[in-house]
Amino acid sequence: MVLSIRCRAVHGGVSLLLTAVLAVPLAAHADVPAQRQDLAAVLRQLDALERFVAHSAAATPIVPGDRYHFDYPRLLADLARVRTGIQSHLTPSRAQPRDLTELAGDYRSERAPQHNPLPQAQP
To answer: Which Pfam families does this chain map to (predicted)?
Structure first.
């Protein structure tokens, strides 16, 4: 029960912080210096969000028998993708084709059967 409440609080915190990051106004007709400052602020918020997610992933125990779990690695990969997009906008090189792969977006997945894919070292 306590673990369930804690997990909801952690996931709620991730949602709240992600909403705050994405809520920064990025108007298409905004002046460039203000937009650069907003995007730099988003990058700082992404740093904080990534630290929060990594801490949450480390603090959330893996409970054997749970069917579903929050997919922290997928969330971190999507955050890295958002960071890359912002950084490429702030420091554009020459006109290059954009990578149009989509964010995963679904962070709830069934737990895979417990097995160790790496062979154990023999003493």
So the answer is: Plasmid_RAQPRD
pLDDT in tens, 17-28: 556 555 555 444
Candidates 29, 46, 52, 35; CA nearest to 84 is 46
Q: What is the 3-state secondary structure (H, E, C) of the chain?
A: CHHHHHHHHHHHHHHHHHHHHHCCCCCCCCCHHHHHHHHHHHHHHHHHHHHHHHHHHHHCCCCCCCCEEECHHHHHHHHHHHHHHHHHHHCCCCCCCCCCCCCCCCCEEECCCCCCCCCCCCC
Q: What pLDDT does 99 receive?
A: 74
Which amino acid, one-letter code, is at 114?
A: Q
Does this model's pTM top 0.70? My answer is no
Cβ(101)–Cβ(58) under 8 Å? no
